[in-house]
Amino acid sequence: MLWVKVFHIVFVASWFAGLFYLPRIFVNMAQQSDPATLAVLGGMARRLYRFMTILAVPAIILGLVLYAYYRIGFGPGNGWMHVKLLLVVVLIGYHHACGVILRKFQHSANKRSHVFYRWFNELPVLILVAVTALVVLKPF
């Protein structure tokens, strides 16, 4: 089971790398007006989103395997896991939102400024800190 943990951590870290970088590409796209540059950034964003999705699937599946293996239930002392799972659901929603934003850029329908995307970029950082604290500290 330790190998499952190892690969879960590797896939989660890799998925987060994409979640950190894709909104930075959105910042650059929101500041850009040159069609050629937008096309290059759009291609980068599209490939990154596709790769992030491929990384997210095993990260989630391996996490569910670990959850089932350790039989973390609803009893006392396991509240941290349920908050963590809620944050994972939020993260999946964030991943989906990145896909929606990418499609808006691809159809030249973006209405948001680079400032919005700078703030949008901070959410996965906050989630990573919260999940790491929950897993390490198991506060409740």
Automatic annotation (TrEMBL):
Its cofactor is heme b. Pathway: Porphyrin-containing compound metabolism; protoporphyrin-IX biosynthesis; protoporphyrin-IX from protoporphyrinogen-IX: step 1/1. InterPro entries: HemJ-like (IPR005265). It holds the Pfam family UPF0093. The chain crosses the membrane at residues 6-27, 48-70, 82-103, 115-137. The keyword Transmembrane helix applies. Belongs to the HemJ family. Homodimer. This is Protoporphyrinogen IX oxidase. It comes from Sheuella amnicola. The lineage of its organism: Bacteria, Pseudomonadati, Pseudomonadota, Betaproteobacteria, Burkholderiales.
